[in-house]
Design brief:
Elements (H helix, E strand, L loop, with lengths): L1 H13 L1 H21 L14 H12 L9 E7 L9 H17 L3 E4 L14 E8 L8 H14 L5 E6 L11 H17 L2 H29 L5 H29 L4 H28 L7 H32 L6 H4 L15 H11 L1 H16 L7 E2 L11 H13 L7 E5 L3 H12 L4 E4 L3 E2 L6 E7 L6 H13 L4 E4 L1 H35 L3 H26 L15 E2 L2 H29 L4 H29 L6 H33 L8 H6 L31
Helix pairs in contact: 1-2, 1-9, 1-10, 2-7, 2-10, 4-5, 6-7, 6-20, 7-8, 7-10, 8-9, 8-10, 8-20, 9-10, 9-17, 9-19, 12-20, 13-18, 13-21, 17-18, 17-19, 18-19, 18-21, 19-20, 19-21, 20-21
């Protein structure tokens, strides 16, 4: 592999104009596709194999022309103190709202009158108007959404409170300035690391090109592939982080090769042949982790994983081809001014002062047990809140109190009871007699406020029964009620609705976590065994990842569920952790953790196979890689932290979780625990049974097959250098 990548790097360097033109053309093509593609609709949410999904599928068959997938809104009215919604003035205002909503948009299917639909609370203080639309919330036009908001605003006055809930006000997640701040911080870190604006600009430029191609392609295909609104955001988050990191490692290796006196084309080839090999395998681990999300069998999550994996593949290809091409354009300016004038710091080999990486590695080697205990116990303490993890999907009750959806949610809870915001929809596959019998059975269960009369379809072979739980949708009591209904009824009765769907979704995510973890860690273990020619190094890498990801989950629980330091991160409302968060974090963090493992330990392995003792190899790895790995981790944390400022709760939580996970994994696991374990293992760290060594393919990540290049003849580097095994 090293030989192939060496040739690829030199070829891209020589043909830099053609390579740059091809990538610019791809960016333009993807941009045109995104600009001309039809507007994306909201992604359909389905959970194959669950009872809630079977109920929705049955409704689609038995209620043709229904609006189950359409957006809904609830306009909630609260009477002034001492008045009721049945009073003449208040009733007149509500009737005006009903009339305005019916004529306000051609996307409206139906508007219920609260006085005929029994949508007034027992004490008369609260009433609501239900609005159903033909299309989903993401497909509503701005005019329809504005008409809804304006109608609610006009109805307020003289003490009457009007709030709007439901998914009709759902919009695309807003992009804040946080992402830009993250990129700016990344640029500052790169300038400090390289001491050259040109060298710092290359990773940023190539990462932006890669993300531009990836996100534009996702946008162009969003309508065809039914991609959700958060797919491109997550792809941008991951693609930007790994794109900068992969380019950073190759540019850093290129500068190191130049510092050793090699010519530019040769340095580019060697950088791609060595650091590029690490980039390929690091990218493969990320892709495995993201594509592996398909085992969960939730289409939305699978599409998110594949889209993000595609962006990572683009980042790898750009690092291997566009980076050496741009290095050809950069010339000597890729080095800092001091290096170009020969006033750079002396290397350690030339009698210079040991760098921070060397000093830290020597400290760890002297005290491996202490460093190991502090690292493991520290992360273990941070991981403790993960034992209290509660999972669910956010509803309007999880939004900040400043949102009208949250205020409408609270008004309905106060007027009709906490369970009113999460009604259960029981679907009966049978005639009216069966439905009536089912309703009577459900009425006998505990934890129920009301059971509505069955609503049959036109054919009379199916009926819907609405059940109002006593407790709020996300409560344990409501979850137990769903299980009780399912246990008390026959197989022809299916419990569904948003609340039941959330419960089934959380259960499916829990059931899939262990198989997914086994698949991803198992495949990556085999991959790392090929890279490092060792059994214990991949095992240590996997165990270290588990420690860092559990600690990151503990931090997420402490902030988003318990509210610790919540105001610092813009968490206005605590609640259960989103069901997909743990498994998504496992996938993404595992891929990113293996990045640092590959980049850091590959250099140690390279030193070890060239004759250095285990302790010396650890120091050599840190001497050459610690500064760059540190910069890469800080950049990735900055990029992920930028998404904490987004209004979308899912993106905010994922951004925080990934940033914290990178902090723990890069600086505690890879920089402290890994060298401590390697120091304690010594030569045993690189042990591999002979039969396994013969069975595994030799991919030569360390670049052993690269020859010491002869000087090229002529200014263009004329003759091809011969490659010999060393």
């Amino acid at each position: 592999m090293a030989t192939f990548l060496y040739k690829l790097g030199r070829s891209a360097f020589r043909r830099r104009r053609l390579v740059a033109l091809l990538w610019v053309a791809l960016l333009a093509l993807a941009g045109v596709g995104a600009a001309t593609a039809p507007a994306a609709t909201s992604s359909s949410f389905s959970i194959p194999g669950t009872e809630a999904q079977k109920a929705f599928d049955l409704l689609d068959q038995r209620y043709p022309g229904g609006t189950a997938d359409g957006a809904t809104a609830r306009v909630v009215f609260k009477a002034p103190e001492g008045q009721k919604m049945t009073d003449g003035t208040n009733k007149a205002k509500v009737e005006d709202v009903v009339a305005e909503l019916k004529s306000g948009s051609d996307q409206v299917v139906s508007v219920t009158d609260p006085y005929t639909a029994k949508a007034v609370s027992k004490d008369g203080s609260t009433a609501y108007v239900s609005v159903s639309y033909k299309v989903s919330g993401m497909e509503l036009t701005d005019a329809t959404r504005e008409a809804l908001e304006q109608t609610g605003h006009d109805a307020q006055g003289e003490g009457l409170t009007v709030e709007i809930g439901g998914d009709a006000l759902q919009t695309m997640p807003e992009t804040g300035a946080g992402e830009i701040v993250g990129v700016v911080i990344a640029g500052i870190v790169l300038v400090i690391t390289f001491g050259s604006l040109v060298a710092a600009g290359l990773p940023l430029l190539t990462a932006i090109i890669g993300v531009g191609i990836g996100v534009s392609t996702i946008t162009a295909l969003a309508n065809v592939l039914d991609l959700g609104s958060t797919t491109s955001t997550l792809a941008m988050m991951i693609g930007l982080a790994v794109g900068i990191d992969y380019a950073l490692f190759i540019v850093s290796r290129y500068r190191a090769e130049l510092a050793e006196g090699r010519e530019r084309e040769e340095a580019a080839g060697r950088a791609v042949g060595t650091a590029g090999s690490a980039v390929v395998f690091a990218g493969l681990t990320v892709v495995i982790a993201l594509v592996g999300l398909a085992v969960v069998n939730i289409p939305m999550l699978t599409k998110m994983g594949f889209a993000a994996a595609g962006t990572v593949v683009i980042a790898v290809l750009i690092a291997l081809t566009l980076i050496p091409a741009l290095l050809g354009f950069a010339g000597p300016r890729v080095m800092g001014r001091k290096e170009r004038k020969g006033r750079g710091k002396k290397s350690e080999a030339a009698g210079g002062k040991p760098n921070m990486g060397t000093r830290w590695a020597r400290f760890v080697i002297r005290r491996p047990v202490m460093v190991l205990l502090v690292g493991v116990l520290g992360l273990g303490a941070i991981a403790l809140p993960a034992a209290s993890l509660e999972m669910g999907l956010p509803d309007d009750g999880a939004k900040p109190v400043s949102a009208t959806e949250r205020r409408a949610y609270d008004l309905l809870s106060d007027g009709f009871g906490p369970g009113f915001n999460g009604p259960l929809m029981v679907v009966v596959d049978g005639d009216k007699a069966v439905a009536d019998s089912t309703a009577e059975t459900i009425k006998g269960l505990d934890g129920i406020v009301a059971v509505m009369p069955p609503t049959p379809n036109k054919a009379g072979d199916t009926a819907m029964i609405t059940v109002i739980p006593k407790d709020r949708p996300s409560s344990v009591a409501t979850e137990e009620l769903v299980h009780d209904i399912r246990a008390a009824t026959d197989d022809n009765v299916l419990v569904s609705g948003a609340t039941a769907m959330n419960i089934d979704f959380s259960q499916k995510m829990n059931d899939a976590l262990v198989p997914y973890l086994a698949l991803v860690v198992g495949l990556a273990f085999l991959l790392l065994m090929v890279v490092f020619r060792s059994v214990l190094v991949p095992l240590k890498a996997a165990l270290g990842f588990l420690l860092s990801v559990v600690a990151a989950l503990g931090a997420v629980v402490a902030v988003f569920q318990w509210g610790w330091l919540g105001s610092l991160f813009g968490v206005e409302q605590t609640g259960p952790i989103m069901s997909m968060m743990p498994i998504f974090m496992v996938g993404v963090v595992f891929g990113l953790a293996m990045d640092y493992e590959v980049f850091l330990v590959t250099r140690m392995r390279e030193a070890y196979v060239h004759g250095e003792r285990p302790g010396e190899a650890i120091v050599t790895g840190f001497r050459h890689s610690a500064r760059v790995v540190t910069a890469a981790a800080v950049i990735m944390m900055a990029v992920f932290s930028g998404f904490i400022g987004m209004s979308d709760q899912m993106i905010k939580m994922i951004g925080f979780g990934l940033a914290v996970a990178v902090l723990f994994d890069a600086f505690v696991v890879r920089m402290a625990i890994v060298p401590a374990v390697l120091a304690l293992l010594g030569h045993k760290a690189w042990w591999l049974p002979k039969w396994l060594d013969r069975a595994l393919p030799n991919v030569d990540v360390e670049g052993e097959s690269l020859a010491v290049a002869k000087d090229a003849d002529g200014p263009q580097g004329g003759q091809e250098r011969e490659l010999v095994k060393v």
